[in-house]
Amino acid sequence: MTNDFVHTPATSDRSLSYEEMLSDKTLSNEQREALIAETLVAYMSILLARRGDVSTARLLLQVERWKLDWDDEGREKDLTLEVDPANKSHFTDDLLQKLRGLCQEISGRFGFGVNWVEVRESLPIVGPGWREMVQREISGERPTNQARRLQPAPQRWLEDNLAFTNEGEQRVYKLLKYRQEKVLPAEETISIFPLPNGRIAGRTWEPDFLVTYKGRAGILEIDGPHHNARRALDVTREHLMRDSGIAYIDRVPVEALENRPELERVLDRFLRRLAESR
After folding, report:
1. Are strands 209-213 and 216-222 parallel, antiparallel or unpaired?
2. Are 41 and 60 in contact (CB under 8 A)?
3. Distance CA 163, CA 154 (A)
4. 158-276: which CATH topology?
5. At what angle do helices 29-50 and 93-110 cross, to 10 degrees?
6. Among 2, 44, 57, 234, which is least packed by CB within 10 angstroms?
7. pLDDT value of position 3
């Protein structure tokens, strides 16, 4: 099949903003529309994250492809997002309304004239080996955690049939897994749940890791580079998690991800304090 959806294009000048790229008079109509679609997805994602709606921003990371399509009446172009069938259910009517409002806000500021967002299932690239592909699907040879983030193919961060959004998450998982299998006794070890979607009082949330140990549940988050700017939001969310039965919450400083001894100290402290929590 012809895949006319556009992935993030490679550019020779990474310093250019989308506004600067769109000002290029040599763009064809097709190139301009592809760039407008990508611009909308990028701004929507960043604004959601900056406004503290991280769970919705992360859902947009599941989008595999985007393009502008004529609406049913052929009057204007809509933003169409394609996601894996296993993830489409996360895009509820309420969430779509939120995305449409945000799309209208951004489109209005740029004068794009795009006022509607639709989400549909993506179609895989299929060839004569489709029987083997079906067998792999049936046998579960795909990432199985609830938050399998659909990176631009091929997926880079996979471990034990679980998907991660970045190398840092995978590194934390590997060290937790080492403690699970090699350090702690089999009759008193941990369970590790990367990127589980769930709901606490008043909102849905997706922690980086849910870990259970000695009858207690703990949350382990990985700080991003802009963590300090959202500290008040983090504290409020941690209070909600504690009120909802989470025994202990801790954070991995982003600097520790590149320093294995420091990262191991952080994880050991987290497990020790989780075991001691009351």
Report:
1. antiparallel
2. yes
3. 12
4. Endonuclease; Chain A (3.40.960)
5. 120
6. 2
7. 41
User: Residues in the chain with pLDDT < 50?
Assistant: 1-14, 146-155, 225-233
Tokens 């299929």 correspond to what residue? 126
Question: What does the alpha-carbon distance between residue 249 and residue 217 come to, in Å, rounded to a whole number?
Answer: 9
The torsion angle over the Cα atoms of residues 255, 259, 262 and 265, rounded to 10 degrees, is 110
Tokens 């880079």, residue located? 156
Q: Round to whole Å and give the CA distance between 230 and 233.
A: 5
Q: What length is written for the chain?
A: 278
What is the C-alpha separation between 49 and 58, in angstroms, rounded?
Answer: 8
Residue tagged 């350090």 (tokens)? 183
Amino acid at 275: A
Residue range 8-20, pLDDT digits in tens: 444 444 457 888 8
DSSP state string for 151-171: PSSSP--EETTEE-SSHHHHH
User: Residue 251 — φ and ψ, nearest 5°?
Assistant: -130, 145
Q: Which residues make up the CATH 3.40.960 domain(s) of the chain?
A: 158-276
pLDDT digits (tens, 9 = 90+) for 143-201: 555 444 443 444 457 788 787 878 889 999 999 999 999 999 999 999 999 988 788 77
> b/e for 90-115, b at 16 or more Cβ within 10 A?
bbeeebeebbbebbeebbeeeebebb
- In single-letter form, the type of residue at position 50 comes to R
CA 193 to chain centre: 15
Q: What is the pTM of this model?
A: 0.49
Q: Please, are residues 146 and 196 in contact by the beta-carbon 8 Å criterion?
A: yes
The segment(s) of the chain belonging to CATH 3.30.300 are: 18-121
Residue 2: predicted pLDDT: 39
